[in-house]
Design goal:
Elements lengths: L10 H4 L3 E6 L3 H16 L5 E7 L3 H11 L3 E3 L2 H6 L5 E4 L6 H10 L3 E5 L6 H15 L5 E4 L6 H11 L6 E9 L16 H4 L3 H17 L3 E9 L4 E4 L2 E4 L5 E8 L4 E7 L8 E8 L2 E6 L5 E6 L10 E4 L22 H16 L7 H19 L5 E2 L13
Parallel strand pairs: 1-2, 1-4, 2-3, 4-5, 5-6, 7-12
Antiparallel strand pairs: 7-13, 8-11, 8-17, 9-10, 11-12, 13-14, 14-15, 15-16
Helix pairs in contact: 2-10, 5-6, 6-11, 9-11
């Protein structure tokens, strides 16, 4: 069977569960594996099987496969992609591998889920997006893993904004702060080399913050001003001190097509901040606040009520009527960070079953990539303003 010339396999056409292969077994591989292992226990999704986990070290990937619920392990992703019992490729490998694996999988007729950012370079992201568009004509679906879209509180925030509860949004503040590189003695990793990571905090966490701005507002970026900073330029490696070739922190000011202004600040050297994503959305009729460290909560202020009644109120987002939460626990019982990946897999499988384009698409990932590239260009030009063509994103509200 030549899957490159036919629509992708599905349960309806093959009368068997969808076969899933995940590539990568470290941090993201573990998070995705947990989601694959649990999603069918809570959501109505097409039948699938965790067929194979792929990694470079045969011993370690075999141990991870047994621990994470995969039927088998492998070390050659190319051979796995060619297997006829594999229908979905979940790419959790580092960014420098994304393009080659995703394009090969799409051309082989496999549905593809890939971790953010889409690729290490704009050129690679463009090639991936072109391959995804071509594959889509044959019924092959693809999606990028911006998992914070699947935080129920943020999905609710998007609904409230779309309903006009904030009125005209004027400005947005997004800050994603971590401290795992605050110690100058922290060792080199692939994330600190441009050839393997593409960029530092910019691609790693600013991609999340920028995607949230676009997702929450359904808006487009038209102008970018940015700055990058590497505070620790050498770190200990296997061969002694090595040069850090990516940024430790990044700042950007984004002008949106609607006229709103967004400020984005990200850092991996913000001492005391472990994984802090905060979002503030200010409109002329209200405001929304969110903090990932309290991800079941949303702050909301309605400025249309009399001033004597105004004030931020805490919405505890765990009612069955909130996005995604009908599948989990009784109201008042909170969920966690790992559930965002379960929701992501649920949405991806549902789209495959329905034959619809899942969101965020590779096109949306490419849009974020253009903005990241503009931040780098502006930083290199010392605060030059970079013009972008508006790319409005009209995506469905997940979990509604």
């Amino acid at each position: 069977m030549n899957t490159a010339q036919t629509p992708a396999l599905s349960k309806d056409s093959t009368d068997r569960p969808l076969g899933v292969a995940a590539i990568g077994y470290a941090f993201m591989g573990k998070a995705h594996s947990n989601a694959w292992r649990n999603v069918a226990s809570f959501f109505d999704v097409p039948a699938f099987e965790q067929k194979v986990l792929v990694g470079r070290d045969a011993t370690q990937v075999a141990e991870a496969a047994a621990k994470y619920g995969w039927a088998e392990s492998a070390t050659d992703w190319r051979e796995v992609i060619e297997r006829e019992d594999i229908d979905i490729i979940d790419i959790c490998a580092p960014g420098w591998m994304h393009a080659e694996i995703a394009i090969a999988a799409l051309e082989a007729g496999k549905h593809v889920l890939v971790e953010k950012p889409l690729a290490n370079t704009l050129g690679e992201a463009e090639l991936m997006t072109a391959a995804a568009a071509k594959a889509r004509k044959r019924g092959v679906q693809s999606m990028i893993g911006f998992n914070y879209r699947r935080v129920p509180a943020l999905a609710l925030a998007r609904e409230l904004i779309a309903e006009g509860r904030l009125g005209t949004v004027r400005h947005i503040r997004a800050a994603y702060l971590q401290d795992w590189l605050s110690d100058a003695g922290s060792p080199m990793t692939w994330r600190l080399r441009k050839e393997t990571a593409g960029s530092g905090a910019l691609g790693d966490i600013a991609s999340h913050a920028i995607d949230q701005v676009l997702y929450l507002l359904g808006d487009a970026v038209t102008e970018v001003s940015g700055r990058l900073q590497t505070f620790v330029d050498r770190r200990p490696g296997d061969a002694g001190m090595e040069e850090v070739t990516v940024d430790d922190a990044a700042w950007a000011t984004l002008t949106l097509a609607s006229g709103a202004i967004a400020s984005v600040e990200v850092s991996r050297v913000a001492t005391g901040r472990k994984n802090s994503l905060t979002l503030e959305i200010y409109g002329d009729k209200g405001t929304i606040l969110f903090d990932l460290e309290a991800l079941n909560e949303l702050g909301f202020l309605d400025s249309t009520v009399p001033v004597r009644e105004q004030g931020f109120r805490r919405i505890l987002v765990n009612e069955p009527g909130h996005p995604y939460l009908e599948a989990w626990w009784p109201q008042g019982h909170i969920i966690g960070w790992e559930h965002t990946f379960t929701h992501q897999i649920r949405d991806f499988l549902t789209a495959i079953r329905d034959g619809s384009q899942p969101s965020p698409s590779f096109e949306e990932g490419l849009n974020v990539q253009h903005i990241l590239a503009a931040v780098e260009e502006s930083a290199a030009a010392k605060s030059s303003l970079i013009q972008l063509s508006p790319k409005p994103i009209n995506t469905p509200i997940e979990g509604a």
